[in-house]
Design brief:
single chain, mainly alpha, globular, binds iron/sulfur cluster
Length: about 100
């Protein structure tokens, strides 16, 4: 089991409050807003943390660069994927073997 899978296992056993705290804390670490793919639409609706929540519902359609490799969340939870805003959350990309 790798670092990400361990995190998912811990979250599965967490309470709703613990899960919402996890999202809240990590949203502040997300560096998507520094990325060229991130656009004004995403900024206006305050999108972030695509690696956990999944792709941008309507805002991001065009792939430029991905800044996730510079993000503490990517390192801390052992993420292995990129372009979450377009390709979906880490867990879904792994399942789809993207
Ligand atoms: S890994 Fe990417 S999507 Fe996830 S929090 Fe960091 S910058 Fe945002
Ligand atoms: S997931 Fe990657 S490509 Fe998408 S906005 Fe965040 S840093 Fe940029």
């Amino acid at each position: 089991m790798d670092k990400f899978e361990k995190t998912m296992e811990l979250l599965a056993g967490a309470s709703d409050k613990e899960r919402s705290n996890f999202v809240f804390e990590n949203r502040h670490l997300c560096v998507c807003h520094t990325c060229r793919t991130y656009n004004e639409c995403a900024m206006n609706v305050k999108e972030a943390l695509y690696c956990m929540t999944g792709e941008s519902p309507t805002c991001i359609k065009e792939k430029k660069i991905c800044a996730c490799s510079r993000c503490p969340v990517h390192f801390s939870y052992g993420l292995t994927k990129y372009f979450f805003c377009l390709r979906g959350a880490e867990i879904d990309q792994r399942a789809a073997k993207k």
